[in-house]
């Protein structure tokens, strides 16, 4: 049809265009041979250069494309053409995520500019990524923008908003007398006690004695207080803090030893003065705070540390994340960025244990201490 | 008996016709028992752009037994109110109308356009069911609860900056003042040179000072200092734009003027190239995330004399809990920012302040070891 343009008298051109687009609607326009270099000239513009998306979802990825070749592009025929999306790390290392091929909704004719709205499937690992946007043909070439410049869409994958946590709401709606374990994570009462025991074990391996002074930040409903209640002597003591105000009266009622105290803390402020501790623990705290908050909490802990005391905390790290990604439901940090922030707070790290977390990440437990072993 | 008739397709068909022909009306406030229902947001957005319209999906369930009209003199609507993260209302409440009536029973999803506030900040959208005559349902029926959805409101994506791109596409020979942002003409750039230098002198600059300039750009400070610093002073500039470093190296050819390409949170000077008397951060923390700013300050501490000072500008807003924005413009909570500097042992003093917009101000801050 394109070649007929020259034979149509000018007054009839608008009509001819309408006829042409009607024909194109029903025409299949199959692509049966590989495109030549000239026919694979495309001008591609991304609708948005960067997006923040939830993991494991599909997001619209608007692309404006102009066919500067001489043949029709379509996803029909023996050598169909697709839009291709290839996931790379922020440093452009290809990932083991299969290339996503999206068929064209309708054929793109030479000279035509169309807005495509493919849905991009988002992987399930938090982080900062680049998605290489272009075209791929079965049995033919892969190609991008005619300028030769590779087009990348920047994508930050963050946690699902549905998994975000409002701690105050979580406590306000929980019946702690009936179920004091779900609100702090474990699915069963047994698991609650088992995890408490393993936390005690971690502290013992790092020098806990019955006379130790322990501060448990984010004490929740007392997972660590349970084993310490029978372990600590009258000389040792336990302070628990949590940002959930409901957790405090619950713990006060359950742990009645005079050397067990509970107080509400703010997100980055621990309201304790004039007392120092041999252990400050942050179990499942830095897995929910932003890195700048983590730095402030570590600085608070350092302020409260006795000579030779240490801090124990766990964190999710992933090399896919540039600084941090996620929400209060789960936060993942870049490992180097995290270590630099710990150093900024004047502390040294020592890795105690680690497990795989999600696709690329790790859950790591660290001991943090003053570089000289003394209080700063 | 009636129940089983109501389950038939014929009943539902007849009901559908009746509803289409006679839409529900409620000129009087609905009785409290009919004000029972729920509202929730379906897949609320992760974050939104400032001053934009976003279509939210709300799921509405009428549990009150009477139909809720969507038009007429006294329709049932959603009442929205933006609040700051501290919970204080921000701006006027607004009404979100339903496109069709809500009948008792099955939850219904409505797409409703919501305008975001015109300021960057950590906002909460408060939404509840409402009737103009009668007021909010939560005050009429205690089973009906408002909802609150936290939404960070960010700067426009179009205002985000890729510094490498900016430098790559700028012609630095023709207009090296434009790429660094604040100047409209070369004349203005030249005229403000003395002002820039004067401010540094107030911060303790002397002709013998050793100066570290992070984010030196095309040399707006180097230009102001090139005829001021003596040979016993020194100027070290760094920028993440390699083109800027090449430009400065070519244009400021003094032996004690050193330029080096740096990374986002790393200063490319060895500790023994210091220590410096004065570190300058002009329009740096206005573009970096607050944890990045903290790491830059830690880098600076490594290079600073114990009596040295840091002078920096930052945009602060009470609407922000920690930091919000993008590389085009970053806003911080002042207390949070200063506390992070405090973890490094820095004391701060605000030496200048200018309004930024009606909700934020730009501060000039001097840090020194406490």
Report on this model:
The complex is a heterodimer of chains A (376) and B (370). By secondary structure, chain A is an alpha/beta fold. Chain A contains seven helices and 20 strands. Chain A has three domains: 29 residues, no CATH class; 128 residues, Immunoglobulin-like (Sandwich), CATH 2.60.40.10; 207 residues, Vaccinia Virus protein VP39 (Rossmann fold, 3-Layer(aba) Sandwich), CATH 3.40.50. In chain A, the strands form four sheets. In chain A, strands 12, 13, 14, 15, 16, 17, 18, 19 and 20 form a nine-stranded mixed beta sheet that branches. In chain A, strands 2, 5, 6, 9, 10 and 11 form a six-stranded mixed beta sheet that branches. Chain B has two domains: 132 residues, Immunoglobulin-like (Sandwich); 212 residues, Vaccinia Virus protein VP39 (Rossmann fold). Chain B has a seven-stranded mixed beta sheet. In chain B, strands 2, 4, 5, 7, 8 and 9 form a six-stranded mixed beta sheet that branches. Chains A and B meet through strand 2, helix 6 and helix 7 of A and helix 9 and helix 10 of B.
